[in-house]
Design a protein that fits this description.
The complex is a heterodimer of chains A (429) and B (471). Chain A has twelve helices and 16 strands. In chain A, helix 3 (172-179) packs across helix 4 and helix 4 packs across helix 5. Chain A is α/β, with parallel strands linked by helices and 429 residues long. Chain B is an alpha/beta fold. In chain B, the strands form two sheets. In chain B, strands 1, 2, 3, 4, 5, 14, 15 and 16 form an eight-stranded mixed sheet that branches. Chain B has an eight-stranded mixed sheet with strand order 6-7-8-9-10-11-12-13, with helices on both faces. In chain B, helix 4 packs across helix 5 and helix 8 (346-352) crosses helix 9 (370-383). Classes of the chains: A alpha/beta (429), B alpha/beta (471). At the A-B interface, helix 9 and helix 12 of A face helix 2 and helix 9 of B.
Chain lengths: 429, 471
């Protein structure tokens, strides 16, 4: 209990003057997050919630000094795909806000309304250095799952960085099932909806079942104009090629592939089409017939072909384990030592969980790196942030220092010693 | 007319049990009584054969022996599929002129053993046609043996070998039922049949489950169990019936007479009561684990391990006293309410409390990185001031799993005479940047990162996109 209070007090003390005068985080191994190499003994200057400067820069007079000697200093992790905040617990524990399979709407559904910033998965993510996250809706009865949000994980009730940040679409086998049973039906639904959105008028032959509402079509207008990215879940190489064909019909669409397990087979075509990818580094099994060629070298090969790739946990635990994105990124670095594999450098791997997903959302000017002008999402780690044994020691979001306490950390404190007190554990707070 | 009872109640996997038709000789006194017939307890025996092994010496490596020891500048000598010598290279007299690997900068450990896998019974691709893990048709399906579901062509086996350094693994049936069926322990080598993979001499396990899964599956069908109290009631009823069956058969085996009817379900429970079959109990919550320990006391069996023991950290004293292992994830939590209190300190707390701690996967991806999961658990413990050395923590991955599967006399540590189930890592095995470089099973080199020919390609993958690629 004493420990907790001390931690809270420290954070309050550090947080309040931060708004009033600049803070300089000094002496650490500084990672900018844009793919550049770490800078030894780097400095980050934060003022009024923004990064003023970072690198080998001078410390302004009167700045509060935070000594990070022996530590690593990085931008906060940006989870490239998640559903944190939409469910406290999954199965068997009551309704969640993940999916809306019974709604008449689809593309128009805006996930931002469902994000609960005090949900444990958000607190746990924050405590592990995740300061921003793409939050995707879990799906409807259409290939259009709805509008995703970019959120922060801060300890206030204002989590949404950008609502309507992207439209989430299921293609491949999943989309085929949602559209009526075949890929052909899914492609037709996608093309028809985009056509209606582009032309600004509803289709005249809309069937009753599975029809898109006017709100859905309106939600797709900025997508077809390229103002809002379209995140498409897809794995099979042939499906990716088909999406490239569809993009030729709607050339302004800003398409981001999610998964793309067989992307490496058509990496050159993805690169030529200007499409980017968010992928899971460890996906290496034929988990479905869409992923027969899955290999951990997928991301390295895509990148070698010139595709922008972000890294995220995709296949499981997306409701809560955004914190493990950095472990996955580390695994990409490991491949450099395995003959035959194509990995990525440490610098690239870190960018894949920071600036790259931010850039894909058009938010690279705001979040994802410590370049000057960005929101001051900063983490001090006790070691290499991609390493398994490292943890954040201090976290700032928008320049405000965050509480890193979680239910789990409270439980760990409570059960560190058992049966010692005069009263049962329930009195130990 | 005493049948050879010792053979019947001993470890059941001795291949000499015969076909079940042998009749013991009658004693003179009971010549009119029918003689007891031995039932074959091992109708699907292991046909595993260790592959070719070349005498191999690894020199100058950092060695974790799997039972807490660390040797810097260590040597491991494998010959005839066994560990021949382990020690400090400088102080050993080592053979010359044999296959020698310079392990400078590398680490050697016992092979990792995953005590909770569904490779083969929930294989890749994850389609209904090969989804064979849960016989969810009755709360007690102890009659099913999961080895009859395991598809040896699951590509997941080779992934676990190449990326995870997994040399043995227990395949469990799923947790839909209070009694899910028998588990099987496999060597992680490709086989044409599941028998080709069965770990010789490994006892069977019985998968039991408590908590949300069985009550949900049967409650949704409007039948018992529909609550946690129903779980316990039905479990106790089944044990009462099994005890009666056990006594009936004990009597028959002692005295002969009319053979009782065979009941495959109760055969498995009888094996537990006789101590031949080990109970692996899917159970998350501390309060439920405590109840299951009492239930085991009531019927005279032992819970060998709790699987998914998310709240084991709340009762390390009870677990230590019962001699029950906890198989745990490093950081899974919150995916259902009974996992809500998961903490990353769990493994370290259980270990620190003197109980047997195991890191398990229950996951076709997680099984490829159990070393990484152990690292997270170890770090969490250290942050709470629990000092466990790297070498000591390796017990969570090899020795303790082997003990809980009843195969520690054969594998799970780098000690002379044990099976040469060995991993050479290309760096610190607790680093995210490290992968297996070579993996031996019974001294046979089954994976070599530098040799594309030592990378198994399952039948399923032949002729498919990506065949033979690095995975």
């Amino acid at each position: 209990m004493k420990r907790l209070l001390t931690a809270l007090a420290a954070s309050l003390i550090a947080a309040s003057p931060a708004a009033a005068q600049p803070v300089a985080i000094t002496g650490g191994k500084l990672v900018i997050g844009d793919g550049s190499a770490p800078i030894d003994n780097g400095v980050v200057i934060v003022d009024d919630g923004r990064v003023v400067a970072a690198g080998n820069v001078a410390i302004p007079q009167g700045a509060i000094i935070v000594d990070a000697s022996g530590k690593w200093v990085t931008p906060g992790i940006v989870a490239g795909y998640s559903r944190i905040g939409l469910a406290e617990v999954d199965g068997g524990s009551g309704p969640t806000d993940v999916s809306a399979g019974n709604s008449p709407h689809s593309a128009a559904i805006d996930v931002a309304w469902g994000v609960n910033p005090s949900a444990e998965p958000i607190r746990v993510s924050r405590a592990d250095g995740v300061t921003r996250a793409l939050v995707a809706p879990g799906g409807t009865n259409s290939i259009f799952a709805g509008q995703g949000a970019v959120i922060d994980t801060g300890m206030d009730y204002d989590p949404v960085t950008r609502a309507g940040a992207f439209q989430y679409v299921y293609m491949g086998q999943g989309g085929a099932q949602l559209a009526g049973g075949s890929r052909s039906a899914a492609a037709l639904q996608l093309i028809d909806a985009l056509t209606q959105a582009r032309d600004g008028r509803p289709s005249t032959d809309r069937p009753e079942e599975g029809a898109l509402t006017d709100a859905d079509i309106r939600a797709l207008r900025p997508v077809v104009r390229g103002e809002v990215p379209m995140l498409v879940a897809v794995e099979r190489a042939s499906d990716i090629v088909n999406l490239i064909r569809i993009k030729r019909q709607f050339p302004r669409i800003d398409m981001v592939l999610l998964g793309a397990g067989e992307g490496w087979l058509v990496a050159d075509q993805i690169a030529a089409a200007g499409i980017s990818v968010i992928a899971e580094p460890t996906a290496n099994r034929p988990a479905s017939f869409d992923q027969l060629a899955a290999t951990q070298s997928n991301i390295g090969r895509l990148r070698a072909a010139g595709v922008d790739v972000g890294v995220a946990l995709i296949s499981d635990f997306v409701n809560r384990n955004a914190r493990n994105g950095r472990q996955l990124a580390g695994n990409l670095v490991a491949l450099q030592k395995v003959p035959g594999h194509t990995g990525v450098s440490w610098d690239q791997a870190f960018a894949m969980i920071s600036s790259v997903p931010a850039d894909m959302m058009g938010l690279g000017g705001e979040i994802g790196s410590l370049r000057s002008g960005r929101r001051a999402d900063v983490v001090i780690w006790n070691g290499d942030p991609l390493e398994l044994m490292s943890v954040p020691e201090r976290v700032w979001i928008d320049g405000v220092e965050q509480d890193l306490t979680t239910r789990a950390s409270r439980l760990a404190e409570r059960y560190r010693e058992i049966g010692e007190g005069q009263f049962p554990e329930a009195y130990d707070r | 007319m005493r049948l050879t009872i010792t053979a019947l109640v001993g470890i059941s996997l001795t291949a000499c049990m015969g076909g079940g038709g042998d009749v013991a000789s009658a004693s003179d006194a009971d010549a009119d009584k029918e003689e007891a017939v031995a039932v074959d307890r091992d109708p699907f025996p292991s046909t595993y054969v260790p592959r070719f092994s070349e005498p191999t010496l690894i020199m100058n490596a950092t060695v974790f022996d799997g039972v807490g020891g660390r040797i810097d500048g260590g040597a491991v000598y494998m010959v005839d599929g066994k560990i021949a010598m382990v020690g400090n290279a400088a102080s050993m007299s080592l053979p010359a002129g044999i296959n020698t690997i310079d392990g400078s900068g590398l680490y050697v450990t016992p092979g990792i053993i995953d005590v909770h896998s569904h490779l083969g019974n929930y294989p890749s691709p994850g389609v209904p046609a090969v989804s064979d893990g849960n016989e969810a048709t009755s709360p007690n399906t102890a009659e099913v043996w999961t080895e009859h579901s395991v598809w040896p062509q699951d590509p997941g086996f080779s992934r676990a070998l190449a990326n995870g350094g997994i040399t043995a693994l227990q395949i469990l049936p799923g947790s839909a039922n209070l009694f899910g069926g028998r588990s099987v322990t496999l060597k992680n080598v490709p086989g044409r049949t599941v028998m080709d993979m069965k770990f010789p001499g490994a006892p069977y396990g019985l998968k039991m489950a408590c908590g949300e899964n069985p009550k949900r599956v049967y409650g949704n069908r409007g039948r018992s169990p529909a609550t946690r109290m129903g779980n316990i009631a039905v479990t106790r009823e089944q044990w009462i019936a099994a005890k009666a069956y056990d006594e009936q058969w004990d009597k028959y085996e002692e005295e002969g007479g009319k053979m009782p009817s065979r009941d495959l379900t109760k055969d498995t429970l009888r094996g537990v009561l006789d101590g031949d079959i080990l109970v692996h109990n899917h159970c998350y919550r501390a309060d439920e684990m405590a109840i299951m320990l009492k239930l085991a006391d009531e019927f005279g069996y032992k819970v060998t391990s709790f699987q998914h023991a998310v709240e084991a950290y709340k009762i390390p004293d009870l677990l230590a006293e019962a001699g029950t292992c906890s198989a745990m994830w490093a950081d899974w939590y919150g995916f259902k309410l009974e996992s809500y209190d998961g903490i990353r300190e769990n493994v370290a707390y259980v270990h620190n409390g003197g109980a047997c701690a195991i890191v398990h996967s229950d996951d076709a991806d997680g099984i490829q990185r159990l070393n990484q999961e152990a690292a997270k658990a170890l770090a969490a413990g250290r942050r709470q001031g629990i000092e466990i050395s790297d070498a000591e923590a390796w017990q969570w991955l090899s020795a303790n799993p082997a003990k809980s599967l009843g195969i520690f006399d054969q594998t799970g540590s780098l000690e002379s005479g044990k099976n040469a189930d060995v991993v050479l890592w290309n760096g610190d095995p607790y680093s995210v940047y490290t992968r297996p470089q070579m993996v031996w099973v019974d001294g046979a080199l089954m994976y070599d990162a530098n040799d594309p020919n030592r990378r198994p390609v399952s039948d399923f993958e032949l002729g498919q996109p990506g065949e033979g690629d690095v995975k």
